[in-house]
Amino acid sequence: MTRNITKPAAMISAIHVVVVVSCWAVCPWAASLLAGESLRPDPPFPRIGNTYAAKLASKTWEEGRAYWSKLGLIIGGGYDLHYDWDDPHWAKQLERVEANLAKLRQVNPRILVLPYVDVIEGPDNPRLPQSWWDLKEGKRWSGWPEYFRVNTRLPEVLHFNLDQVRSKILSRQCFDGVFYDCWGPDPWLVPKTAALRGGRAIVMINDWNLPRKGFSHLNGCLAEDEFNRVIEGKVDFEEFLARYLRWCRESRKPVVTMLVGHPQSMNTDPWYWHSLPWKQRLEARGKLQHADLKTMRFGLCTTLMGDGYFGYDCANNGRGDWWWYPEYDAPLGYPRGPAQRNSDGTWQRRFDGGLVVVNGSQYDAVVHTEATCRDVSTGRVARQFTLPMIDGRILVPSGEPATTGDDVPPRITCEPARKLRVVSLDEGMWAVQVPGGLELRFAGDGALRHILWQGRSLFGGGWPVVRSTEHGDFTAENTRPPQVHSGDGQAELTFQGTLVSGSQRVDYVETCVVRPDASFSLEFQFTARTDLKLRMWRHYFDFPAARYVGATVRGDHGAVTLPTATAKHPLLPGSRTVTVESGEFVVHFESSLPLATADDRAYKGDKFLLAGYPVSGAVKSGTQWSVRIRTSVSPRATR
Questions:
Q1: H or E element in which residue 221 lies
Q2: Residue 605, in any domain of the structure
Protein backbone atom coordinates (compact mmCIF):
# COMPACT_ATOMS: atom_id res chain seq x y z
CA MET A 1 0.00 0.00 0.00
CA THR A 2 1.40 3.37 -0.96
CA ARG A 3 0.69 6.59 0.83
CA ASN A 4 1.81 10.08 -0.22
CA ILE A 5 2.83 11.43 3.17
CA THR A 6 5.51 13.95 2.15
CA LYS A 7 3.23 17.01 2.04
CA PRO A 8 1.43 16.42 5.40
CA ALA A 9 4.74 15.60 7.08
CA ALA A 10 6.39 18.80 5.89
CA MET A 11 3.38 20.89 6.86
CA ILE A 12 3.24 19.47 10.37
CA SER A 13 6.96 19.81 10.86
CA ALA A 14 6.84 23.45 9.80
CA ILE A 15 4.04 24.54 12.12
CA HIS A 16 5.07 22.32 15.05
CA VAL A 17 1.51 21.16 15.78
CA VAL A 18 0.93 19.23 18.98
CA VAL A 19 -2.38 17.38 19.35
CA VAL A 20 -3.57 16.38 22.80
CA VAL A 21 -6.61 14.24 23.48
CA SER A 22 -7.10 12.88 26.99
CA CYS A 23 -3.67 14.22 27.99
CA TRP A 24 -1.85 12.67 25.01
CA ALA A 25 0.61 14.57 22.79
CA VAL A 26 1.62 13.82 19.22
CA CYS A 27 5.19 14.86 18.46
CA PRO A 28 6.24 16.14 15.02
CA TRP A 29 6.75 13.04 12.91
CA ALA A 30 8.13 14.19 9.58
CA ALA A 31 11.70 12.94 9.76
CA SER A 32 11.10 9.73 11.71
CA LEU A 33 8.11 8.62 9.66
CA LEU A 34 9.73 9.29 6.31
CA ALA A 35 12.79 7.37 7.40
CA GLY A 36 10.85 4.55 9.00
CA GLU A 37 8.39 3.89 6.19
CA SER A 38 11.18 3.05 3.75
CA LEU A 39 12.42 0.37 6.16
CA ARG A 40 9.25 -1.23 7.50
CA PRO A 41 7.87 -4.22 5.59
CA ASP A 42 4.35 -3.76 6.95
CA PRO A 43 2.06 -1.19 5.28
CA PRO A 44 1.08 2.11 6.93
CA PHE A 45 -2.46 2.93 8.03
CA PRO A 46 -5.29 2.91 7.09
CA ARG A 47 -4.93 -0.60 5.69
CA ILE A 48 -7.55 -1.26 3.01
CA GLY A 49 -8.33 -4.64 1.47
CA ASN A 50 -10.52 -6.01 -1.29
CA THR A 51 -12.61 -9.11 -0.71
CA TYR A 52 -13.35 -11.28 -3.78
CA ALA A 53 -13.55 -8.65 -6.54
CA ALA A 54 -10.13 -7.13 -7.20
CA LYS A 55 -10.54 -8.46 -10.79
CA LEU A 56 -6.90 -9.35 -11.27
CA ALA A 57 -7.88 -11.71 -14.09
CA SER A 58 -10.43 -9.55 -15.88
CA LYS A 59 -8.79 -6.09 -15.82
CA THR A 60 -5.66 -4.94 -17.62
CA TRP A 61 -2.82 -3.40 -15.67
CA GLU A 62 -3.77 0.03 -17.00
CA GLU A 63 -7.39 -0.44 -15.86
CA GLY A 64 -6.55 -1.66 -12.36
CA ARG A 65 -3.24 0.02 -11.47
CA ALA A 66 -4.60 3.11 -9.70
CA TYR A 67 -6.87 1.05 -7.44
CA TRP A 68 -4.69 -2.02 -6.83
CA SER A 69 -1.69 0.13 -5.92
CA LYS A 70 -3.54 1.54 -2.90
CA LEU A 71 -4.54 -1.82 -1.42
CA GLY A 72 -2.77 -3.73 1.31
CA LEU A 73 -4.62 -7.05 0.99
CA ILE A 74 -6.38 -8.84 -1.87
CA ILE A 75 -8.55 -11.89 -1.14
CA GLY A 76 -9.40 -13.84 -4.27
CA GLY A 77 -10.31 -11.44 -7.02
CA GLY A 78 -9.10 -13.48 -9.99
CA TYR A 79 -8.20 -16.92 -8.69
CA ASP A 80 -11.34 -18.06 -6.82
CA LEU A 81 -11.76 -21.81 -6.63
CA HIS A 82 -14.99 -23.71 -5.82
CA TYR A 83 -14.27 -27.37 -6.58
CA ASP A 84 -13.61 -26.40 -10.19
CA TRP A 85 -9.82 -26.66 -10.15
CA ASP A 86 -9.91 -28.82 -13.27
CA ASP A 87 -11.69 -26.20 -15.38
CA PRO A 88 -9.37 -25.28 -18.30
CA HIS A 89 -10.27 -21.57 -18.07
CA TRP A 90 -8.05 -21.26 -14.97
CA ALA A 91 -4.88 -21.46 -17.09
CA LYS A 92 -5.79 -18.30 -18.95
CA GLN A 93 -7.04 -16.60 -15.79
CA LEU A 94 -3.84 -17.43 -13.97
CA GLU A 95 -1.69 -16.02 -16.78
CA ARG A 96 -3.40 -12.62 -16.44
CA VAL A 97 -3.25 -12.71 -12.63
CA GLU A 98 0.47 -13.46 -12.59
CA ALA A 99 1.22 -10.70 -15.09
CA ASN A 100 -0.74 -8.10 -13.13
CA LEU A 101 0.80 -9.15 -9.82
CA ALA A 102 4.34 -8.92 -11.23
CA LYS A 103 3.71 -5.27 -12.12
CA LEU A 104 1.79 -4.58 -8.92
CA ARG A 105 4.58 -5.76 -6.66
CA GLN A 106 6.98 -3.36 -8.36
CA VAL A 107 4.93 -0.36 -7.21
CA ASN A 108 3.39 -1.93 -4.09
CA PRO A 109 5.80 -4.55 -2.72
CA ARG A 110 3.98 -4.81 0.63
CA ILE A 111 0.68 -6.06 -0.80
CA LEU A 112 -0.52 -9.52 0.29
CA VAL A 113 -2.51 -11.70 -2.12
CA LEU A 114 -4.51 -14.72 -0.91
CA PRO A 115 -6.43 -16.80 -3.48
CA TYR A 116 -9.95 -17.83 -2.50
CA VAL A 117 -10.83 -21.46 -1.79
CA ASP A 118 -14.37 -22.65 -1.05
CA VAL A 119 -14.17 -25.82 1.07
CA ILE A 120 -17.89 -26.29 1.76
CA GLU A 121 -19.62 -25.67 -1.60
CA GLY A 122 -19.11 -26.19 -5.31
CA PRO A 123 -20.88 -25.76 -8.64
CA ASP A 124 -22.62 -28.63 -10.42
CA ASN A 125 -19.30 -30.13 -11.53
CA PRO A 126 -19.88 -33.59 -13.08
CA ARG A 127 -16.20 -34.43 -12.61
CA LEU A 128 -16.56 -34.25 -8.82
CA PRO A 129 -17.11 -37.65 -7.16
CA GLN A 130 -20.84 -37.99 -6.58
CA SER A 131 -20.19 -39.42 -3.10
CA TRP A 132 -18.76 -36.04 -2.04
CA TRP A 133 -22.06 -34.15 -2.12
CA ASP A 134 -23.74 -33.49 1.19
CA LEU A 135 -27.32 -34.74 1.12
CA LYS A 136 -30.58 -33.83 2.85
CA GLU A 137 -33.30 -36.43 2.48
CA GLY A 138 -31.23 -37.99 -0.28
CA LYS A 139 -30.86 -34.77 -2.29
CA ARG A 140 -28.14 -32.19 -2.74
CA TRP A 141 -28.87 -28.90 -1.04
CA SER A 142 -27.75 -25.32 -1.56
CA GLY A 143 -26.72 -22.52 0.78
CA TRP A 144 -25.95 -20.15 -2.10
CA PRO A 145 -27.45 -19.65 -5.57
CA GLU A 146 -26.07 -22.18 -8.10
CA TYR A 147 -23.79 -23.93 -5.56
CA PHE A 148 -24.23 -27.17 -3.63
CA ARG A 149 -22.86 -28.30 -0.27
CA VAL A 150 -19.94 -30.71 -0.10
CA ASN A 151 -19.58 -33.27 2.70
CA THR A 152 -16.52 -31.97 4.53
CA ARG A 153 -16.81 -34.79 7.07
CA LEU A 154 -15.12 -37.03 4.51
CA PRO A 155 -11.32 -37.21 5.05
CA GLU A 156 -10.75 -37.48 1.30
CA VAL A 157 -12.44 -34.10 0.78
CA LEU A 158 -10.05 -32.35 3.17
CA HIS A 159 -7.02 -34.16 1.72
CA PHE A 160 -8.12 -33.07 -1.75
CA ASN A 161 -8.31 -29.41 -0.69
CA LEU A 162 -4.88 -29.50 0.96
CA ASP A 163 -3.31 -31.12 -2.11
CA GLN A 164 -4.85 -28.54 -4.44
CA VAL A 165 -3.70 -25.63 -2.29
CA ARG A 166 -0.18 -27.06 -2.10
CA SER A 167 0.15 -27.74 -5.83
CA LYS A 168 -1.90 -24.97 -7.46
CA ILE A 169 -1.55 -22.02 -5.09
CA LEU A 170 1.46 -22.23 -2.79
CA SER A 171 3.67 -23.59 -5.56
CA ARG A 172 3.42 -20.12 -7.16
CA GLN A 173 5.44 -17.32 -5.60
CA CYS A 174 2.99 -14.67 -6.78
CA PHE A 175 0.65 -15.78 -3.97
CA ASP A 176 1.37 -15.23 -0.28
CA GLY A 177 -0.98 -17.84 1.13
CA VAL A 178 -4.60 -18.93 1.00
CA PHE A 179 -8.05 -17.83 2.16
CA TYR A 180 -10.55 -20.54 3.18
CA ASP A 181 -14.11 -19.23 2.94
CA CYS A 182 -16.83 -20.37 5.35
CA TRP A 183 -14.27 -22.37 7.32
CA GLY A 184 -13.29 -22.29 10.97
CA PRO A 185 -10.08 -23.12 12.84
CA ASP A 186 -10.47 -26.90 12.40
CA PRO A 187 -7.95 -29.40 13.84
CA TRP A 188 -6.68 -30.73 10.49
CA LEU A 189 -6.90 -28.59 7.34
CA VAL A 190 -5.80 -25.28 8.88
CA PRO A 191 -2.77 -26.68 10.77
CA LYS A 192 -1.67 -28.72 7.75
CA THR A 193 -1.92 -25.67 5.50
CA ALA A 194 -0.08 -23.47 7.99
CA ALA A 195 2.85 -25.91 7.92
CA LEU A 196 3.34 -25.49 4.17
CA ARG A 197 6.23 -23.40 2.83
CA GLY A 198 8.19 -24.35 5.91
CA GLY A 199 5.53 -22.86 8.17
CA ARG A 200 5.53 -19.49 6.38
CA ALA A 201 2.29 -19.84 4.41
CA ILE A 202 -0.22 -17.13 5.30
CA VAL A 203 -3.55 -18.74 6.21
CA MET A 204 -6.79 -16.80 6.60
CA ILE A 205 -10.33 -18.07 7.17
CA ASN A 206 -13.89 -16.74 7.13
CA ASP A 207 -15.78 -18.08 10.13
CA TRP A 208 -18.44 -15.32 9.81
CA ASN A 209 -17.85 -14.15 13.40
CA LEU A 210 -14.34 -13.76 14.76
CA PRO A 211 -13.79 -17.05 16.66
CA ARG A 212 -12.05 -17.39 20.00
CA LYS A 213 -9.43 -19.92 18.92
CA GLY A 214 -7.05 -20.71 16.09
CA PHE A 215 -4.45 -18.03 16.73
CA SER A 216 -1.41 -20.33 16.62
CA HIS A 217 -2.10 -21.57 13.08
CA LEU A 218 -3.86 -18.59 11.50
CA ASN A 219 -2.68 -15.17 10.38
CA GLY A 220 -6.19 -13.81 10.49
CA CYS A 221 -9.90 -14.14 10.05
CA LEU A 222 -12.49 -12.24 8.04
CA ALA A 223 -15.15 -10.65 10.26
CA GLU A 224 -17.85 -10.61 7.59
CA ASP A 225 -20.45 -7.93 8.33
CA GLU A 226 -19.98 -8.40 12.08
CA PHE A 227 -19.71 -4.69 12.78
CA ASN A 228 -23.06 -4.37 10.98
CA ARG A 229 -24.46 -6.74 13.59
CA VAL A 230 -22.95 -4.50 16.28
CA ILE A 231 -24.99 -1.62 14.83
CA GLU A 232 -28.09 -3.81 14.80
CA GLY A 233 -27.63 -4.67 18.47
CA LYS A 234 -26.97 -8.35 17.79
CA VAL A 235 -23.31 -8.21 18.90
CA ASP A 236 -21.86 -6.22 21.81
CA PHE A 237 -19.29 -3.66 20.64
CA GLU A 238 -16.86 -4.08 23.54
CA GLU A 239 -16.90 -7.86 23.21
CA PHE A 240 -16.43 -7.67 19.44
CA LEU A 241 -13.56 -5.19 19.75
CA ALA A 242 -11.87 -7.41 22.35
CA ARG A 243 -12.00 -10.40 19.96
CA TYR A 244 -10.65 -8.30 17.09
CA LEU A 245 -7.77 -6.90 19.14
CA ARG A 246 -6.93 -10.41 20.33
CA TRP A 247 -6.70 -11.60 16.72
CA CYS A 248 -4.33 -8.74 15.94
CA ARG A 249 -2.26 -9.47 19.03
CA GLU A 250 -2.08 -13.28 19.17
CA SER A 251 -2.37 -14.58 15.61
CA ARG A 252 0.63 -15.43 13.45
CA LYS A 253 2.34 -12.54 11.74
CA PRO A 254 1.78 -10.83 9.39
CA VAL A 255 -1.72 -10.00 10.61
CA VAL A 256 -4.39 -10.30 7.93
CA THR A 257 -7.56 -10.11 10.04
CA MET A 258 -10.04 -7.97 8.15
CA LEU A 259 -13.29 -6.23 9.09
CA VAL A 260 -15.65 -5.91 6.15
CA GLY A 261 -19.18 -4.52 6.15
CA HIS A 262 -21.92 -2.98 4.06
CA PRO A 263 -24.42 -0.10 4.07
CA GLN A 264 -27.15 -0.75 6.63
CA SER A 265 -29.80 0.24 4.09
CA MET A 266 -29.06 -2.53 1.58
CA ASN A 267 -30.98 -5.77 1.08
CA THR A 268 -28.55 -8.57 1.99
CA ASP A 269 -30.57 -11.50 0.59
CA PRO A 270 -28.29 -13.15 -2.04
CA TRP A 271 -31.30 -14.61 -3.85
CA TYR A 272 -32.71 -11.08 -4.26
CA TRP A 273 -29.53 -9.86 -5.95
CA HIS A 274 -29.29 -13.04 -7.99
CA SER A 275 -32.76 -12.32 -9.42
CA LEU A 276 -31.85 -8.83 -10.69
CA PRO A 277 -30.67 -8.18 -14.25
CA TRP A 278 -26.99 -7.27 -14.33
CA LYS A 279 -27.55 -3.64 -15.34
CA GLN A 280 -30.09 -3.13 -12.58
CA ARG A 281 -27.72 -4.71 -10.09
CA LEU A 282 -24.91 -2.31 -11.06
CA GLU A 283 -27.21 0.69 -10.72
CA ALA A 284 -28.30 -0.42 -7.26
CA ARG A 285 -24.70 -0.93 -6.14
CA GLY A 286 -23.71 2.52 -7.38
CA LYS A 287 -26.44 4.18 -5.31
CA LEU A 288 -25.26 2.40 -2.18
CA GLN A 289 -21.68 3.72 -2.26
CA HIS A 290 -22.53 6.94 -0.42
CA ALA A 291 -25.80 5.84 1.18
CA ASP A 292 -24.42 5.15 4.65
CA LEU A 293 -21.10 6.85 5.33
CA LYS A 294 -21.59 6.66 9.09
CA THR A 295 -21.43 2.87 8.96
CA MET A 296 -18.28 3.07 6.83
CA ARG A 297 -16.62 5.43 9.32
CA PHE A 298 -17.60 3.26 12.27
CA GLY A 299 -16.16 0.13 10.66
CA LEU A 300 -12.97 1.85 9.51
CA CYS A 301 -12.23 3.51 12.84
CA THR A 302 -12.96 0.28 14.72
CA THR A 303 -10.48 -1.48 12.42
CA LEU A 304 -7.86 1.19 13.17
CA MET A 305 -7.96 0.27 16.86
CA GLY A 306 -5.98 -2.82 15.79
CA ASP A 307 -3.58 -3.78 13.02
CA GLY A 308 -6.03 -5.34 10.57
CA TYR A 309 -7.51 -4.43 7.20
CA PHE A 310 -10.84 -2.83 6.29
CA GLY A 311 -13.31 -3.20 3.45
CA TYR A 312 -16.70 -1.65 2.68
CA ASP A 313 -18.88 -2.93 -0.14
CA CYS A 314 -22.19 -4.51 -1.18
CA ALA A 315 -21.87 -7.54 1.11
CA ASN A 316 -23.00 -10.85 -0.38
CA ASN A 317 -23.89 -9.19 -3.66
CA GLY A 318 -20.37 -10.16 -4.69
CA ARG A 319 -18.34 -8.06 -2.24
CA GLY A 320 -15.26 -6.16 -3.31
CA ASP A 321 -16.75 -2.99 -4.85
CA TRP A 322 -14.01 -0.53 -5.79
CA TRP A 323 -15.34 2.11 -3.44
CA TRP A 324 -12.86 4.65 -2.11
CA TYR A 325 -13.34 7.38 0.48
CA PRO A 326 -11.26 10.37 1.68
CA GLU A 327 -10.77 8.63 5.03
CA TYR A 328 -8.80 5.87 3.28
CA ASP A 329 -6.17 8.44 2.24
CA ALA A 330 -5.65 9.91 5.73
CA PRO A 331 -1.85 10.04 6.25
CA LEU A 332 -1.81 8.24 9.60
CA GLY A 333 1.45 6.39 9.09
CA TYR A 334 2.07 3.99 11.97
CA PRO A 335 0.58 3.65 15.48
CA ARG A 336 2.44 4.97 18.49
CA GLY A 337 0.89 2.37 20.77
CA PRO A 338 -2.18 0.23 21.38
CA ALA A 339 -5.74 1.53 21.49
CA GLN A 340 -7.04 2.90 24.78
CA ARG A 341 -10.54 3.09 26.23
CA ASN A 342 -11.79 6.44 27.56
CA SER A 343 -14.14 6.88 30.50
CA ASP A 344 -17.02 7.96 28.21
CA GLY A 345 -16.92 4.62 26.35
CA THR A 346 -15.02 5.87 23.30
CA TRP A 347 -11.78 4.25 22.14
CA GLN A 348 -8.80 6.07 20.68
CA ARG A 349 -5.49 5.21 19.09
CA ARG A 350 -2.53 7.49 18.49
CA PHE A 351 -0.73 7.47 15.15
CA ASP A 352 2.28 9.38 13.88
CA GLY A 353 -0.06 11.37 11.63
CA GLY A 354 -3.06 11.95 13.85
CA LEU A 355 -5.64 10.45 16.15
CA VAL A 356 -8.47 7.98 15.51
CA VAL A 357 -11.49 7.88 17.84
CA VAL A 358 -14.37 5.40 17.59
CA ASN A 359 -17.61 5.58 19.55
CA GLY A 360 -19.23 2.17 19.92
CA SER A 361 -21.37 3.31 22.84
CA GLN A 362 -25.03 4.28 22.78
CA TYR A 363 -24.26 7.92 23.64
CA ASP A 364 -22.87 10.90 21.78
CA ALA A 365 -19.45 12.03 22.99
CA VAL A 366 -17.35 15.19 22.78
CA VAL A 367 -13.66 14.99 21.82
CA HIS A 368 -11.39 17.83 23.00
CA THR A 369 -7.95 18.57 21.55
CA GLU A 370 -5.35 21.05 22.85
CA ALA A 371 -4.22 21.96 19.34
CA THR A 372 -6.18 22.56 16.16
CA CYS A 373 -7.17 19.48 14.16
CA ARG A 374 -9.09 18.76 10.99
CA ASP A 375 -11.81 16.13 10.87
CA VAL A 376 -11.03 14.17 7.71
CA SER A 377 -14.69 13.25 7.25
CA THR A 378 -16.43 16.60 7.73
CA GLY A 379 -13.57 19.03 7.07
CA ARG A 380 -14.27 20.78 10.37
CA VAL A 381 -11.18 22.46 11.85
CA ALA A 382 -11.39 22.97 15.59
CA ARG A 383 -10.31 21.82 19.03
CA GLN A 384 -13.65 20.28 19.95
CA PHE A 385 -15.64 17.71 17.98
CA THR A 386 -18.98 16.01 18.62
CA LEU A 387 -18.69 12.28 17.94
CA PRO A 388 -22.13 10.66 17.52
CA MET A 389 -22.87 7.19 18.83
CA ILE A 390 -21.80 4.31 16.58
CA ASP A 391 -19.49 6.53 14.53
CA GLY A 392 -15.82 7.28 14.17
CA ARG A 393 -13.48 10.13 13.30
CA ILE A 394 -9.93 10.57 12.01
CA LEU A 395 -8.41 13.82 13.31
CA VAL A 396 -5.18 15.12 11.78
CA PRO A 397 -3.09 18.15 12.85
CA SER A 398 -3.99 21.30 10.91
CA GLY A 399 -2.68 24.82 10.49
CA GLU A 400 -5.88 25.97 8.77
CA PRO A 401 -8.16 28.62 10.32
CA ALA A 402 -10.72 27.19 12.71
CA THR A 403 -14.21 26.55 11.34
CA THR A 404 -16.65 29.24 12.44
CA GLY A 405 -19.62 28.28 14.58
CA ASP A 406 -20.13 25.57 17.18
CA ASP A 407 -20.30 21.90 16.35
CA VAL A 408 -23.66 20.15 16.54
CA PRO A 409 -24.50 19.45 20.21
CA PRO A 410 -24.76 15.92 21.58
CA ARG A 411 -28.31 14.52 21.52
CA ILE A 412 -27.93 12.05 24.38
CA THR A 413 -24.94 11.56 26.67
CA CYS A 414 -23.84 9.11 29.34
CA GLU A 415 -25.02 11.43 32.10
CA PRO A 416 -27.71 9.60 34.14
CA ALA A 417 -31.28 10.60 33.29
CA ARG A 418 -33.05 12.68 35.95
CA LYS A 419 -36.47 11.87 34.52
CA LEU A 420 -37.92 9.53 31.96
CA ARG A 421 -37.19 10.95 28.51
CA VAL A 422 -37.60 10.04 24.83
CA VAL A 423 -34.99 11.28 22.34
CA SER A 424 -35.17 11.24 18.53
CA LEU A 425 -31.86 10.20 16.96
CA ASP A 426 -30.68 10.07 13.36
CA GLU A 427 -31.70 7.42 10.81
CA GLY A 428 -35.11 7.05 12.47
CA MET A 429 -33.67 5.74 15.73
CA TRP A 430 -35.29 6.51 19.10
CA ALA A 431 -33.88 6.36 22.61
CA VAL A 432 -35.74 6.01 25.91
CA GLN A 433 -33.99 6.71 29.23
CA VAL A 434 -35.39 5.80 32.64
CA PRO A 435 -33.97 7.24 35.89
CA GLY A 436 -32.03 4.52 37.64
CA GLY A 437 -30.43 2.95 34.58
CA LEU A 438 -32.79 1.22 32.14
CA GLU A 439 -32.44 2.43 28.53
CA LEU A 440 -33.89 1.24 25.22
CA ARG A 441 -32.88 1.98 21.63
CA PHE A 442 -35.39 1.44 18.80
CA ALA A 443 -34.86 1.38 15.04
CA GLY A 444 -37.34 3.29 12.92
CA ASP A 445 -39.26 0.11 12.08
CA GLY A 446 -39.76 -0.69 15.77
CA ALA A 447 -36.99 -3.25 16.17
CA LEU A 448 -35.62 -3.07 19.71
CA ARG A 449 -31.91 -2.97 19.00
CA HIS A 450 -30.48 -2.35 22.46
CA ILE A 451 -31.63 -3.04 26.02
CA LEU A 452 -29.16 -1.30 28.33
CA TRP A 453 -28.48 -0.59 31.97
CA GLN A 454 -26.46 2.60 32.42
CA GLY A 455 -25.07 2.19 28.93
CA ARG A 456 -24.09 -1.45 29.30
CA SER A 457 -25.85 -4.08 27.19
CA LEU A 458 -28.11 -6.29 29.32
CA PHE A 459 -29.65 -8.65 26.77
CA GLY A 460 -31.20 -8.42 23.31
CA GLY A 461 -34.26 -9.35 21.30
CA GLY A 462 -37.90 -8.39 21.47
CA TRP A 463 -38.41 -8.23 17.70
CA PRO A 464 -39.71 -11.17 15.60
CA VAL A 465 -37.46 -13.15 13.28
CA VAL A 466 -39.61 -14.33 10.36
CA ARG A 467 -38.40 -16.60 7.56
CA SER A 468 -40.17 -17.99 4.53
CA THR A 469 -37.17 -20.15 3.58
CA GLU A 470 -33.94 -21.14 5.27
CA HIS A 471 -32.31 -17.88 4.16
CA GLY A 472 -35.23 -15.59 3.22
CA ASP A 473 -35.96 -13.29 6.15
CA PHE A 474 -38.96 -10.98 6.12
CA THR A 475 -37.96 -7.30 6.27
CA ALA A 476 -39.94 -4.24 7.34
CA GLU A 477 -41.30 -1.92 4.64
CA ASN A 478 -43.85 0.90 4.47
CA THR A 479 -42.88 2.00 7.97
CA ARG A 480 -44.15 5.29 9.38
CA PRO A 481 -42.61 7.66 11.94
CA PRO A 482 -43.69 6.36 15.36
CA GLN A 483 -46.38 7.98 17.44
CA VAL A 484 -44.71 9.05 20.69
CA HIS A 485 -46.54 9.98 23.88
CA SER A 486 -44.73 10.88 27.08
CA GLY A 487 -46.52 11.80 30.27
CA ASP A 488 -47.84 10.53 33.59
CA GLY A 489 -44.36 9.18 34.29
CA GLN A 490 -44.28 6.78 31.34
CA ALA A 491 -43.54 6.80 27.62
CA GLU A 492 -45.44 5.08 24.81
CA LEU A 493 -44.11 4.50 21.29
CA THR A 494 -46.25 3.01 18.51
CA PHE A 495 -44.68 1.72 15.29
CA GLN A 496 -46.44 0.50 12.13
CA GLY A 497 -45.32 -1.17 8.94
CA THR A 498 -45.40 -4.29 6.80
CA LEU A 499 -43.18 -7.36 7.00
CA VAL A 500 -42.33 -8.47 3.46
CA SER A 501 -40.70 -11.49 1.83
CA GLY A 502 -41.24 -11.74 -1.92
CA SER A 503 -45.00 -11.54 -2.47
CA GLN A 504 -45.84 -12.37 1.17
CA ARG A 505 -46.99 -9.53 3.43
CA VAL A 506 -47.92 -9.09 7.08
CA ASP A 507 -49.06 -5.75 8.54
CA TYR A 508 -47.98 -5.00 12.10
CA VAL A 509 -48.60 -2.49 14.86
CA GLU A 510 -46.13 -2.49 17.74
CA THR A 511 -46.65 -0.58 20.97
CA CYS A 512 -43.99 -0.26 23.63
CA VAL A 513 -44.76 1.26 27.04
CA VAL A 514 -41.77 2.15 29.24
CA ARG A 515 -42.37 2.82 32.94
CA PRO A 516 -40.21 4.51 35.60
CA ASP A 517 -40.02 1.26 37.63
CA ALA A 518 -37.49 -0.14 35.08
CA SER A 519 -40.09 -2.17 33.22
CA PHE A 520 -41.36 -2.12 29.66
CA SER A 521 -44.06 -3.95 27.74
CA LEU A 522 -44.18 -4.88 24.07
CA GLU A 523 -47.45 -5.61 22.29
CA PHE A 524 -47.61 -6.69 18.64
CA GLN A 525 -50.73 -6.94 16.49
CA PHE A 526 -50.29 -8.82 13.20
CA THR A 527 -52.55 -9.23 10.16
CA ALA A 528 -51.64 -11.51 7.24
CA ARG A 529 -52.35 -9.58 4.02
CA THR A 530 -51.49 -12.54 1.80
CA ASP A 531 -51.34 -16.28 2.24
CA LEU A 532 -48.14 -17.13 4.07
CA LYS A 533 -45.79 -20.09 3.94
CA LEU A 534 -43.57 -19.77 6.99
CA ARG A 535 -40.45 -21.69 7.88
CA MET A 536 -40.16 -19.87 11.22
CA TRP A 537 -41.82 -17.08 13.18
CA ARG A 538 -39.98 -16.52 16.43
CA HIS A 539 -40.19 -13.91 19.17
CA TYR A 540 -37.18 -14.11 21.42
CA PHE A 541 -34.82 -12.52 23.91
CA ASP A 542 -31.14 -13.48 23.88
CA PHE A 543 -28.62 -13.50 26.72
CA PRO A 544 -24.86 -13.53 25.88
CA ALA A 545 -23.40 -16.81 27.06
CA ALA A 546 -20.13 -15.17 28.16
CA ARG A 547 -22.07 -13.13 30.72
CA TYR A 548 -24.92 -15.45 31.69
CA VAL A 549 -23.24 -18.85 32.13
CA GLY A 550 -24.15 -19.89 35.67
CA ALA A 551 -27.29 -17.75 35.80
CA THR A 552 -30.52 -19.36 36.99
CA VAL A 553 -33.64 -19.46 34.82
CA ARG A 554 -36.96 -20.20 36.55
CA GLY A 555 -40.13 -21.00 34.65
CA ASP A 556 -43.53 -22.51 35.16
CA HIS A 557 -42.09 -26.03 35.06
CA GLY A 558 -38.92 -25.77 37.16
CA ALA A 559 -35.51 -24.14 37.08
CA VAL A 560 -32.17 -24.62 35.33
CA THR A 561 -28.64 -23.27 35.68
CA LEU A 562 -27.33 -22.04 32.33
CA PRO A 563 -24.47 -24.47 31.55
CA THR A 564 -20.86 -23.87 30.66
CA ALA A 565 -20.89 -26.70 28.11
CA THR A 566 -23.17 -26.42 25.09
CA ALA A 567 -26.54 -28.11 25.51
CA LYS A 568 -28.09 -29.59 22.36
CA HIS A 569 -31.59 -29.92 23.79
CA PRO A 570 -34.08 -27.39 25.22
CA LEU A 571 -33.09 -26.32 28.71
CA LEU A 572 -36.63 -25.53 29.90
CA PRO A 573 -40.02 -26.00 28.21
CA GLY A 574 -42.19 -23.05 27.32
CA SER A 575 -43.35 -20.85 30.21
CA ARG A 576 -45.52 -17.75 30.34
CA THR A 577 -43.55 -16.41 33.33
CA VAL A 578 -39.75 -16.62 33.24
CA THR A 579 -37.15 -15.15 35.60
CA VAL A 580 -33.44 -14.93 34.77
CA GLU A 581 -31.19 -14.36 37.80
CA SER A 582 -27.53 -13.54 37.21
CA GLY A 583 -24.97 -12.29 39.69
CA GLU A 584 -25.90 -8.70 38.83
CA PHE A 585 -29.52 -8.56 37.67
CA VAL A 586 -32.90 -10.19 37.94
CA VAL A 587 -34.95 -10.02 34.72
CA HIS A 588 -38.60 -11.09 34.84
CA PHE A 589 -40.85 -11.84 31.85
CA GLU A 590 -44.62 -12.20 31.66
CA SER A 591 -45.67 -13.35 28.19
CA SER A 592 -48.84 -14.24 26.32
CA LEU A 593 -46.60 -16.62 24.38
CA PRO A 594 -44.83 -19.56 26.10
CA LEU A 595 -41.08 -18.84 26.06
CA ALA A 596 -38.78 -21.89 25.99
CA THR A 597 -35.15 -21.69 27.15
CA ALA A 598 -32.57 -22.96 24.64
CA ASP A 599 -28.81 -22.87 24.06
CA ASP A 600 -28.13 -21.18 20.72
CA ARG A 601 -24.48 -22.22 20.91
CA ALA A 602 -25.64 -25.60 19.57
CA TYR A 603 -26.42 -23.75 16.31
CA LYS A 604 -23.15 -21.75 16.11
CA GLY A 605 -24.55 -18.84 18.13
CA ASP A 606 -23.07 -17.49 21.35
CA LYS A 607 -26.21 -16.85 23.41
CA PHE A 608 -29.00 -18.41 25.40
CA LEU A 609 -32.50 -17.82 24.05
CA LEU A 610 -35.98 -17.36 25.48
CA ALA A 611 -38.04 -18.07 22.39
CA GLY A 612 -41.71 -18.50 21.45
CA TYR A 613 -43.39 -19.39 18.17
CA PRO A 614 -46.90 -17.96 17.67
CA VAL A 615 -47.52 -19.21 14.09
CA SER A 616 -45.86 -21.56 11.60
CA GLY A 617 -46.36 -23.27 8.28
CA ALA A 618 -49.32 -22.17 6.16
CA VAL A 619 -51.21 -19.08 7.36
CA LYS A 620 -54.29 -17.84 5.50
CA SER A 621 -54.69 -14.24 4.34
CA GLY A 622 -56.71 -12.24 6.85
CA THR A 623 -55.47 -14.19 9.89
CA GLN A 624 -54.80 -11.98 12.92
CA TRP A 625 -52.76 -12.71 16.02
CA SER A 626 -51.01 -10.84 18.83
CA VAL A 627 -48.03 -11.18 21.15
CA ARG A 628 -47.66 -9.39 24.50
CA ILE A 629 -44.55 -9.47 26.70
CA ARG A 630 -43.84 -7.44 29.83
CA THR A 631 -40.26 -7.24 31.09
CA SER A 632 -38.87 -5.82 34.34
CA VAL A 633 -35.23 -5.40 35.36
CA SER A 634 -33.81 -5.13 38.89
CA PRO A 635 -30.16 -4.86 39.97
CA ARG A 636 -29.56 -7.52 42.62
CA ALA A 637 -28.08 -4.92 44.97
CA THR A 638 -31.46 -3.17 45.23
CA ARG A 639 -33.57 -6.26 45.90
A1: strand 220-224
A2: yes
